[in-house]
Amino acid sequence: MLELKKDYEFKHSFRHISPELFVDVDPTPITSAKLIYTTELKKDLGLELLTDDELRNWLNSEERLEGDQHISTRYAGHQFGVWAGQLGDGRAISIGEICTPNKERFEIQTKGSGLTPFSRMGDGKAVIRSSVREFLCSEAMHGLNIPTTRVLALLTGQDKVYREKIERSAIVARVFPTNIRFGHFEYCFHFQKSEALKKLINYTRETFYGAISTQEMLKEIVKRTARLMAHWQDVGFCHGVMNTDNMSIMGLTIDYGPFGFLEDTILNYVCNHSDHNARYAYNQQPSVAMWNLERLMICFIEEVPKEELEAILNFYVPCFEEEYLKLCRKKIGLKLDQDDDYVLFITLLKYMGTLNIDYTFFFRQLASYEVARPETMKTFFDYYGQRSEILGWLKHYDERLKLETIDQRERHKQMKSNNPKYVLKNYIAQEVIDDVEKDQSQKLKEWIFILSHPFDEHPTFEKYSLPTPAEFKNIQVSCSS
Ligand code: AMP
Ligand code: MG
């Protein structure tokens, strides 16, 4: 039997919360699995002793590691604003909770490991396309310093999987401190599993939030969620499926599906093809997160007085606003706080929206702007023409910059470390997918590197930092993954 490195150990703490919350499952390996890529987490997790073949066999459930597990968890949730009843890990299996010598905790879950009791109408499988997207985006978000689930490895298989067309199977191994979602609490509350709910609350608090009260934990969850939303808005990330079962109790970005990064600055942009009511549009995300938090708070009604829950929830808006304003200022290189800064920023966004300006490209260009010298934005104007709205805005910006005390070089440097040059646009993901479909890993490797260093210059990849070519712009992605 395979083993973890010395001083690393498997725990089974989730299993011990309540039998209501998980089932032991029998994974289905994918056929002729190939290990396409392994990240540096292999080392952090104490899996170094495993050869690539052993790691592949473990992640494909063909071999066991001493102390591992095969469980899927039960949760529920609100999907697209409607109570969806019981859900659960329909194709994800937690194969182990690893505790490192530094007492860090990592849960490893393989997504695409076959049917579970929660698969409902699904086939328990994942395809290469969606797995590569999750793989890349997890690392992209991490590179952008945004809390996210991480990835350990990507496997491809030879099984035929039926989506809109026939695709090949894959497994993505993801890593997080815990898989607990708002939906786990919703399951216990709505199905009146009060004993399990109490245990889940205590477990979450003690294991992940330390020696604090339940109220303090909830406040921290509200804070983390608000900050996460501010970060998403800042980089133009649209999640696409912000159902309560896709909300992490740790405030992480989780469950990458039909996500997208803003290309044209369309503030009501909807990246998910199936989101007909635009519920999860870019500019709706902060309020949706609050709605989701409210669903979570309700589950605590037996534990915390109603007025206190309301007060905790009311903390969300100021927390989001404070964080978002801070990020907006950073985005345009402002250090001092001035009353009109937000108006200045929002006015810019509106112009960018009217003119269909590429979000990431513009802010990166602005990071080289010199006061009263619009010609320093030459590349931008070459693309979009001498737009009077932007020229006018730059005049206001000049006035505002005069109040600042840091010098221009320093401002440029700071803006470049806050405005990524590269984000994971859908057409880039597609190029990588096409490569992985051929079982090649070169592009995946290159893009993992670039997306892990999105604020740096990568001269041979310059073209990917330019506005998205028209034929690839604003693609919507379907939910079926
Ligand atoms: P998602 O939209 O990916 O967050 O999935 C919503 C629910 O559907 C979760 O309970 C998933 O586990 C389940 N699900 C999604 N795709 C599949 C699939 N191919 N097979 C089984 N269950 C799935
Ligand atoms: Mg999900």
Bound molecules: adenosine monophosphate, magnesium ion
Low-confidence stretches: none
How many domain units?
Answer: 3
Q: What percentage of the residues does DSSP assign to strands (E)?
A: 5-15%
What is Rg? 23 Å
Range of helix content: 25-40%
| Alpha-beta classification | alpha+beta
Overall spatial form: globular
Quickly count the helices. Answer: 16
Instruction: Write the H/E string, N to C.
Output: EEEHHEEEEEEHEEHHHEEHHHHHHHHHH
- Beta-strand segment tally: 13
- Biggest sheet overview: 7 strands, antiparallel
* Overall mean pLDDT: 97
Q: Span from first to last CA?
A: 33 Å
Structure description:
By secondary structure, the protein is an alpha+beta fold. The chain folds into three domains: 9-178, no CATH class; 183-248 and 267-326, no CATH class; 334-416, no CATH class. The protein contains 16 helices and 13 strands. It has helices at 41-44, 52-59, 128-143, 182-190, 194-209, 214-235, 285-298, 306-314, 316-331, 341-354, 359-366, 378-384, 388-402, 408-416, 426-437, 442-452, and strands at residues 9-11, 22-24, 34-38, 71-73, 76-79, 82-86, 92-99, 105-111, 126-127, 150-162, 166-176, 237-238, 260-261. Strands 1, 3, 7, 8, 9, 10 and 11 form a seven-stranded antiparallel sheet that branches. Helix 4 runs parallel beside helix 7 (285-298). The longest helix is centred in the middle third of the chain and has 22 residues, at 214-235. The chain is globular and about 65 Å long. The structure holds adenosine monophosphate and magnesium ion (MG). Magnesium ion is lined by residues 245-246, 255.
